[in-house]
């Protein structure tokens, strides 16, 4: 009888402790669920901020790497020109765009002269000038062959359209206009990128 009483008390204790632990476990689960749902918003905000930062850093890195690529390409082209090993027929497309821009603006000697006076050409200037040069060549070519006329590029106007220029550049532009035909000078003063003679 004593044994059955002890086992009854033991089972009562176990059921009591089990119900308490179940209640505590339920509260713990509820608190964890509340906590996780509360943290969900914080996590989303944190993730959004991190992805914004990452995107901003990627954009900055792309811009820096783009500038590095431009400067590196320009440096390599000038070095090859100086050494006489510049290949005009085969090149990487980006390099070709830069090279066309240099040609449009008067070539490597012109580039060197401007740099010696403190004017460094920017990527957009060279690429846009190269595109204008390509369009001029396209218009110059008639029926599959080039005509006997020539293509004159508005070198100073092209540079001025795409970047800041020093004061001496104005006088150089005026001198250039005085040396070319009246029709070409008028076309350039009106903002034309090239003139076909």
What key phrases describe this protein's structure?
mainly alpha, 2 domains, two-stranded antiparallel sheet, about 75% helix, globular
Task: Tell me about this structure.
The protein contains 7 helices and 4 strands. By secondary structure, the protein is mainly alpha-helical. It has 2 domains: 62 residues; 111 residues, no CATH class. The strands form 2 sheets. Strands 1-2 form a two-stranded antiparallel sheet. Strands 3-4 form a two-stranded antiparallel ribbon. β1 and β2 form a beta hairpin. α2 packs across α4. It is globular, with a radius of gyration of 37 Å. The N and C termini lie far apart (126 Å).
Average of per-residue pLDDT values: 78
Structural class: mainly alpha
Q: What spatial order of strands do you see in the largest sheet?
A: 1-2
* SSE succession: HHHHEEEHHHE
- List the total number of helices: 7
Radius of gyration: 37 Å
Assembly context of the chains: single chain
Number of strands: 4
Q: What characteristic shape results from the CA principal axes? A: globular
Which percent range describes the beta-strand content?
5-15%
Write the layout of secondary structure elements.
Elements: H1 2-83, H2 93-104, H3 108-116, H4 123-140, E1 141-142, E2 145-146, E3 151-153, H5 155-162, H6 168-179, H7 182-189, E4 194-196
Antiparallel strand pairs: 1-2, 3-4
Helix pairs in contact: 2-4, 4-5
């Amino acid at each position: 009888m004593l044994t059955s009483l002890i086992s009854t008390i033991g089972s009562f204790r176990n059921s009591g402790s089990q119900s308490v632990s179940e209640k505590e476990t339920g509260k713990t689960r509820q608190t964890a669920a509340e906590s996780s749902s509360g943290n969900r918003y914080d996590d989303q905000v944190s993730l959004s901020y991190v992805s914004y930062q990452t995107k901003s850093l990627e954009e900055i890195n792309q811009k820096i790497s783009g500038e590095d690529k431009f400067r590196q390409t320009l440096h390599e082209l000038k070095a090859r020109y100086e050494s006489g090993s510049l290949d005009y027929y085969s090149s990487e497309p980006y390099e070709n765009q830069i090279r066309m821009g240099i040609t449009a603006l008067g070539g490597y000697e012109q580039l060197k002269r401007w740099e010696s006076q403190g004017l460094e050409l920017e990527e957009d200037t060279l690429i846009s000038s190269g595109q204008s040069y390509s369009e001029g060549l396209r218009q110059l070519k008639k029926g599959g062959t080039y005509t006997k006329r020539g293509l004159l590029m508005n070198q100073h106007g092209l540079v001025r359209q795409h970047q800041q220029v020093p004061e001496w550049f104005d006088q150089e532009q005026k001198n250039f206009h005085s040396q070319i035909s009246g029709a070409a000078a008028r076309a350039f003063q009106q903002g034309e990128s090239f003139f076909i003679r």
